[in-house]
Amino acid sequence: MASVTLRNVWKRYGKVEAVKNLNLECRDKEFFCLLGPSGCGKSSTLRMIAGLEEISEGEISIGDNVVNEVEPKDRDIAMVFESYALYPHKTVYDNMAFPLRARAGQYSREQIRERVQKAGAILEISELLDRYPRQLSGGQKQRVAIGRAIVREPQVFLMDEPISHLDAKLRTHMRGELKHLQKELGATMIYVTHDQLEAMSMADQIAILNYGELQQLGTPFEIFNNPTNMFVAGFVGDPPMNFINCALEISGDTWRLKNSAFDISVPDETRRKLESNSGKFSSVNEVMIGVRPENFSIATEKTNDESFPTEVYVTEPLGEDMVVDVIIEGTKSKLKTSVDLEARMGDMIWLNVQKRKMHLFNKDTGKAYF
Amino acid sequence: MTRTELVSKAAKRKRAAWRVVVFLIIALFFLWTTVPLFIMAISSFKEHRDAFQIPQVGDWAGIYKMFDFTPTADHYVNLFGKEDFLPFIFNSVIASGAASVIAVVFGCLAAYGLARGKIPGEQHLSFWILSTRMAPVVAVMVPLYSIFTGMGLLEASRWRNLLGLIIAYTTFDLPFAVWFLRSFFEDIPVELEEAAKVDGYSNMEAFIKVILPLARPGIVAAFILCLIFSWNDFIFASIFGQQAAKTLPVATSELHSTVSIEWGGILASGTLLVVPMLFLGLLIKKYLVQGMTMGAVRQ
Known about the structure:
Number of helices of chain B: 13
CATH architecture of the largest domain in chain B: Orthogonal Bundle
Largest interface: A-B, 32 and 23 residues
Shape of chain B: flat
Order of helices and strands of chain A: EEEHEEEHHHEHEHEEHHEEEHEEEEEEE
Largest sheet of chain A: 6 strands, mixed
Oligomer: heterodimer
Helix content of chain A: 10-25%
Number of strands of chain B: 0
CATH architecture of the largest domain in chain A: 3-Layer(aba) Sandwich
């Protein structure tokens, strides 16, 4: 296994810049996720690492070797495609043996059989080895595609949305399976997905891309708790973070966040962070606060001075939890609470922002103040 | 009876009537295309006198006369004996077979290149390739004649003449093969060859081990169609084949002289021409219907 490093990598298709000056490092044995909406450049990045796409500018290394000019076949990688890309004219066994047969004489017939059977056993597809891809279900095809990748011991596994076409239940199951497999094999894995839940639940490290640019690189914890900008904050988490327009008013030692719905004080800790990170504020500043749906306290009556009332737009019970839609300062916000809350459409409820968990963003640049 | 029942009954009757019409059209077409071949084949086993026992127009009862004969293989024996047709069959097989192999081999390479769309101006190139086939055969005859003369391919030598024929057939088979195969290659997902590349194979290996086997139905169909075109050719063979590399259609046409027409020989030779193509036709149907056995790629 090996690390993968991208230095100042660009990908241009004519005038379109699909990947812009990307710098990443996926460490050895790490589960590394490239996360972003469609068209953000994550697949282009993966394909450049695989060698299926030329690198317009910059440098990609696998281990200690710069691989810019290395053919895919010599990069010692294995890839699982979104479409699975199984060879229709070969049986499952031959599909999985295909990478082992690439280098004549490297593996004997017995070694090939041993490895294919072992991979088949790990993925629980041993009884499918004689079938053809057309005789398999989506989930089975996906396992065969993974099997074809793990029969060798490549330096890096590349996965391009491998489970995005499975049904929801199977997808949840495969998330756990894939993570377990990666740890068990001690594999370096670069995994492309547009599903933040997949990235959050599986990755050791996540790189979030948008419009070809790296937005944030960090552990799932960092990404979730310290998003660097509104894009990351809004992309990760389900339901996504709520953004509310606010004025940050400073008069002497009193810092307050105000809008037509509420008027709350800024806690000292937040204030210190704002002062140390963002320098000077004028007396009135337009800002955006971000509050995750689970970071509101909800009550049916006023609990303190900073509680503010809103009308329930709709409720969505989800078994244990309930999502409540309300309108705050003209924008729809989603709150997550226990299903026990007795609120119906049109009812008034009282909210408190859990201020320690609140995020503050520059309204113009979208960047987080801290 | 309710209204809906009435309506459905009328609809059923209409559907049945429509089926009869369709059946009749197909039956007529079937007779139209197969009866001449059938008459040719059965007449090739008749004595000259029996072969002309044909009922008058409208005399449907007289049809039995066509089957009232003593079969004889004389015409075939004669064809291979006195007329010495074996070399002509050989010429036909070599010229059409070689041209078809060349057309399919180069056709595959060119069609694959075009199908992957990485060639600038690929649309124009494709059209140009097809357009070379739009000209009638006679239009290229004179320039080809002049070129072949220059190359010495029209001298009285069997192999030179055969080579000339192979080149002439290739000029017509190759554009067809390219155009025909292109769509087969286009249907094969790019991911499959990408998968082969990351699995450790070179471009050429991926092409041979993954792409070609998947395009096999198309390749076989293209080969057979090329074979049929060249096998049936008369005009190229009559001019470039000369006397030394006479093919079956040309030899057949020469079975009449100023004094007599060898009807028996012509019918037997015609049957020999048609039968192999008939079987190839059945074969190609199987391949074309078989189509692409996809299913490995999510669709």
